C-alpha cells in the first residue's frame, strides 16, 4: 500500500546514511547497541540453548540429546558477526544487490533493484540475523528454524527489536529491515531455491549431518551469482561445477568455543 511504500522509500534513502555512521564507530559500538536491545535473560543465547535442550528432551551433552545431533544449539556471537561483516565489507568488496524473480522486470522501482536480503538457515532465536541487520542495512531478513520453541523465541526477540526501533524512530531514525521468521525444515526448502535470492546466507553447520548439509549445498548452488555465504565449521564445496569460491577462512569465537568461519561466494 501507499504508506508501506513511502516507509520503504524513506528507509532506503535515509537508513544507509545512519548505518554508515554506525560502521565508523566499529564493532564495539555495535556490540553495545545489540546488548542494549537484547539485555533480558529471555533474549540471551543461554536461554535459547535451554529451550533447544528442553525441546529435544535432553539433559546431557547437546550433540547426543534425543539422538537429534543436527539440532544441538550454539550461536555465532554478535561480536563475531560484526567482525565477519566488517571483513566482508573491507576485504571482499561488500555485498551485491539481490534480484527477485517474482518482480515485474519492467518495474523501475529502485528499492527493488537495490534489495539486500539476508538468510539464516537454522536461525534459532534470531540473534545472528539481528546482529547482521544492525551492521548492514538489509531490506529483508529471513530466518528458518526447525524447533517451535526457538522460533517463538525469535518472534519475542523481534518484538524487542521493534520496540527499540519505535523508540529511536521518535528521534528521526528511519524504519529498518522487514523480518520473516519461518518455523520449518531447511531440508524441505522448495526446490532448494530461496526467494527472494539471498545477498548473504548464514549457516552454522557444525552439527549438520551429511544429508542436511547436502540440502544446504544444493540451496547455495541455486543462489544467484554474487551471493555471499558465511559458513561455520563446514565449508560449501567449491569449484567450477558448484560455482562457489572460498574468499577467506579463520577461527572466530562462538557461544560454545572457537570454530572456523568460511566466507564464500557464488561466482
What do you see in this structure?
This protein has 267 residues and is α/β, with parallel strands linked by helices. Helices cover 40% and strands 17% of the residues. It contains seven helices and seven strands. Strands 3-2-1-4-5-7-6 form a seven-stranded mixed beta sheet. Helix 2 (45-55) runs antiparallel to helix 6 (148-169) and helix 3 (78-91) packs across helix 5 (127-135). The longest helix is centred in the first third of the chain and has 36 residues, at 2-37. It is globular.
Key traits:
globular, alpha/beta, seven-stranded mixed sheet, 17% strand, 267 residues, single chain
Radius of gyration: 18 Å
Count of helix runs: 7
> What pattern of helices and strands is seen along the backbone?
HHHHEHEHEEHEEE
| Percentage of residues in DSSP E strands | 15-25%
Secondary structure category: alpha/beta
N- to C-terminal distance: 36 Å
- Binned, the helix content reads 40-55%
Name the assembly state. Answer: single chain
The low-confidence runs, each spanning 5 or more residues with pLDDT under 50, are 1-21, 59-67, 98-113, 170-174
State the major sheet. Answer: 7 strands, mixed
Shape estimate: globular
Give me the side-by-side strand order of the main sheet: 3-2-1-4-5-7-6
Mean pLDDT: 80
Number of DSSP strand runs? 7
Write the layout of secondary structure elements.
Elements: H1 2-37, H2 45-55, H3 78-91, H4 110-113, E1 117-121, H5 127-135, E2 140-145, H6 148-169, E3 178-183, E4 200-204, H7 210-221, E5 228-232, E6 244-253, E7 258-266
